[in-house]
Design goal:
The complex is a heterodimer of chains A (380) and B (161). Chain A contains 16 helices and no strands. Chain A has helices at residues 2-21, 26-36, 48-67, 78-102, 107-118, 122-131, 140-163, 168-188, 190-197, 203-221, 226-237, 242-267, 276-302, 305-314, 320-329, 332-379. By secondary structure, chain A is mainly α. Chain A has a single domain, classed as Up-down Bundle (Na+/H+ antiporter like fold), CATH 1.20.1530.20. By secondary structure, chain B is α+β, with helices and mostly antiparallel strands. Chain B is built from four helices and ten strands, in the order βββββαββααβββα. The chains are: A mainly alpha (380), B alpha+beta (161). The interface between A and B is medium-sized, with 18 and 20 residues.
Chain lengths: 380, 161
Amino acid sequence: MEGFIIALFVCLVLALISKYLSVPAIPFYILAGIVLGKAGLGIVQSDEISQFFSEIGLLFLLFFMGLGLKLDRMIADPKKLLTAGIIGLIVDMGIGFTAAYLLGFTLLESFIIGTAFYITSTAIVITTLIENRKLMMKEAELIIWLEVFEDIVLIAIIALLSSGDKDLLYFFLKIVLALCVMYAIAHYGKEFLVSILDRDDETPILFTFAAVLTTAALAIMFGIPDSMMVIALGAALATTDPEAFEQHARPFKDVFLVMFFVFFGVTINFTAGTDLFSILILCLLAVVSKFISGMLIGITIYGSAMSGLEIWANTISRGEFSIALAVLYGSAVVGTVIAALVIFTTIVGAFTAKYSTWMRRGITHRSRRKALMHRPHSSR
Amino acid sequence: MALRSLKLPGVGTKYEFMTDKGDTVAIFFTTTGTIQMYTLQKGCQSSSAAEMTPVEARRLGNILTGAIIEADQESVEIAFSALADLRVTIHTFYIPRARAGQTIEDLQIRAKTGATVIAVCRQDKNIINPPPSFAFEEGDAALIIGESDQIKKFESEILVE
């Protein structure tokens, strides 16, 4: 318990520092966990309490993801998004998976690393777009929608991974049944739900908390993956009053997700047989592959390598979803790789996102100067 | 001038319009509560941006509607078109040193100008509907309601003397 309090206090200090420097806090939390935990000083141990809190953090992260899936919101040009999304999926997942497999990971491990390699951090990408005042860029809208696209891909992958080797038909029947029940409750109980959410006392926040945890508990009881069901709960409740649910669930998400990151770091164990070489290769490739996919998207959608550069610069950071995958399905080795991946890409990503305008200006200036130098020759 | 608005997942609501001369203005109400305003000059590649708190944004809005007379005094005119186009103006004034210590009754605000003091803001504390015995202090921000003529009269008779 003392370890837990220490971790909480360290996180508070780190949160203040990261907000002051306006850089993403996720890598700091993981690093703090690594330093305090198994791989470092060993002050903080993962126990039942911390595991429970981490689990709640993960559940609320997934619940938020579900709440974000509002079907009534549509992008102006779905074809463009689909093209860009599929390019990203094939290039990034392809490179991540192939590299991991060639480095000697098993097929399943490579698939998880590939997915973690592909999924960028929605939280970091969107916050940095806002903080760097890039919302008006023509690429910004596409980047924002690409995050939604990735969320949908991630849900499909979670469904695929959690089905495992069970009886598939029976398993999917249970899931479909659970989905129907949830949507029926959201549809027929809409007025009741909204009336609860409108209250000024503790009921809305208590209700939100209870709904998420009850759903997870029921899912485990019926043998269906709780991660899937919590996303589905979010998606079903998004048809009632998603803003209110977001507001009431946010405090839980904010606190417990930080615990989730720290205790992910705590459980990292460098002696688990990962060699530094493959970690380094994967980290560098994570930046390079986003450059390739970004360029391809920029050239296909906007016909401009500059747009590609901008997309790359703003979508390097991997974060919460990669870690969630590591915790849900990864082995200790995969966890270490993904931790390194997240820390490395968030640091690189913070720099590229901040200085991309500057990079673009540098490139255009140089090419303009080149053009000027060439002119006397051509006129001669 | 074509105004379009759209919701961006995780970001907030975007309002964008292009002026007749081809400049673009975009406003984002982000989910974090801040408001960002971008302007993009016609033919320019990169936009410039300003981030505002809701209070600052409202202030800017007041300036743009032409309601502000002095930089730190604001006024809002409300028109009720259903009630024979009834127009009411609310204006803030800072109380000068010459009026410190005097009450609303002493100054005979209602009798002299027709306007009414509906609220006073004193060092971040608000006094709504102050009684006639209420004494002003220097630096109080008084909220005056009335017709625009009454407001002008208040300014010339009560504040300047």
